[in-house]
Amino acid sequence: MDINLMMEITPLLMKAAWITIDISARALFFGFFIASALVALRTSRHVPIRWLARAYISVVRGTPYFVQLLLVFYGGPALGLRLDPFTCGVVVGAFNIGAYMSEAIRGAIESVDSGQNEASRSLGFGRLATLQHIILPQSAGLMIRSIGVLAIILVKNSSLVSIISVVELTYQAQRLIGSTYKPLEVFTLSALMYIVIIYAVMGIVEFLYRRATRYTYL
Amino acid sequence: MTTATKDTPMVELKGVKKRFGDLEVLKGIDLKVERGKIISIIGPSGSGKSTLLRSINYLEVIDEGSILLDGVQVNRPDLKGLAFERHINHIRQNMGMVFQHFNLFPHLSTLDNVTLAPRKLKGMSAGSARELGMELLERVGLADKASVYPSSLSGGQKQRVAIARALAMRPKVMLFDEATSALDPELVEEVNLVMKRLAEEHMTMLIVTHEMAFARDVSDWAMFMDDGVVVEQSTPDRLFTNPDQERTRNFLRKHLESQAVAHAHF
Lengths: 218, 266
Description:
The structure holds 2 protein chains of 2 kinds.
Chain A: H1 3-42, H2 47-62, H3 65-75, H4 85-110, H5 114-123, H6 127-157, H7 169-180, H8 183-212
Chain B: E1 11-20, E2 23-33, E3 38-42, H1 49-56, E4 64-69, E5 72-73, H2 81-92, E6 95-98, H3 110-122, H4 126-139, H5 155-167, E7 173-177, H6 185-200, E8 204-208, H7 212-218, E9 221-226, E10 229-234, H8 236-241, H9 246-265
Parallel strand pairs in B: 3-8, 3-9, 6-7, 7-8
Antiparallel strand pairs in B: 1-2, 1-4, 4-5, 9-10
Helix pairs in contact in B: 3-4, 3-5, 4-5, 5-6
């Protein structure tokens, strides 16, 4: 292995790794709001709205992320939707992960014993206040863990945006191979960087999980 | 809306019917609970007694009839959506409900379980809520457990905290839905004691229970329900010792037998 080469290209790959983090973090952030909206729509009083939310989730889960990216990036302009590669990566990532995350959030909320809802309502708390004071604090732990798993998938999926030429970790690695002809060194290094990012995500998730479930071991 | 006077019944049910699918679980219940009175409702599982209690608090939505709390109608078919939500939230603040499985909030300390509702719903300051919470925990004998979490309490202690939590909203009536059924036998007494003390303070109470001795001891009036109807109601002495109806006699006999069997096993 050419260690010197690896040292040399590390700064370039780190810069690209930052794009990977940036695009994933933004997609996760916006995805969370999309997921919350989907959860709200799925509990709507109106059947067509519930149906629409479910249809959306089915479509997203039923098609590959790769195809979704290509469809929006190359098919979008035909419908007047022109996005630069980075924005396209964030938008498609957010809408994709949002669908999965809505299921994770819903599952966590439904995991709370129905007696908790009844106790809260019987005291006079409304639906939203019950969600805020009783249900969310108790489902936060499970929610954080599930979202953590999705965040990891999101980071790894971000390698696919290289196809629409976002210069993130995988795209940069391919470019460097084109100029160095050393795939082993370059891919090893980029794989290590993915591992570091994923470990950081897992650390953050564990920290948040412990904070959210502190009450269980007090 | 009617104006309540001291003669207005605290709780009144008129022709209350409730169906679960094809099954009619309440077949037209009429009931009047005067203020300060304690009513016990007994009956076999599936008789509709829990559903009746839950309907008063609107945890079950009734299909027909009406329910009044202190002269104010609880079920309001004329109100829809948010308007009804506001109405029912307000009504529920005047009713304390105690559940078989306690349903304490596990993420809150004992004291916070008691003070959450007065703080958030009545806008009580943290200081006064704390004072009220401690006073109520004192009353159920658990002031020393104020800062612990529900997971470290025994079943009996949990239920006493749940009673304190319900009392914190200063309810007009307390509804007990088999409050001691999930407890180990040796823990039943401490909860019964708290309920007895409430009775002595003239709290209006509706008690769904399997504790016949307790029901007889504490209530002003007793009802036997079976198959969605009130089969018989009278003073507890009469209902438990000399009931008019065959069905009541059968139920009480079977209950005594099962208790005797349970004791024989000890």
